[in-house]
Amino acid sequence: MLFVNIIQQLKEERNLLQRNLAASLDMDAPMFSKIERDERFTKRAKVTAFAKIPNISKNKTINV
Questions:
Q1: Alpha carbons 31 and 22: distance in angstroms, whole number
Q2: pLDDT at residue 34 in the model
Q3: How far apart are the C-alpha atoms of 30 and 52, rounded to whole Å?
């Protein structure tokens, strides 16, 4: 599963806001939006940080 698909799925399932996820990853919302739309790549460190957000399963396979 692609990282962008995981972001979108978790946002929908848990009613998360894009700006809150962006803040938790220490990035601005416009940059996060581009990543979510698959217009920009993200660094591996951000993917790892995303996996450490509370209530996000580490069992998901992420293709970067």
A1: 8
A2: 92
A3: 21
This prediction has a pTM of 0.69
In this structure, how many other beta carbons lie within 10 angstroms of the beta carbon of residue 33?
14
Ranges of residues in the chain whose predicted pLDDT is under 70: 1, 54-64
Q: 54 in helix, strand or coil?
A: coil
**CA geometry: angle 32, 37, 43, nearest 5 deg:** 50
Angle value at C-alpha 40, between 34 and 8, nearest 5 degrees: 50
The Cα–Cα gap between 62 and 4 comes to 9
- On whether the CB atoms of residues 36 and 8 are closer than 8 A, the answer is yes
Tokens read off for 11: 């946002």
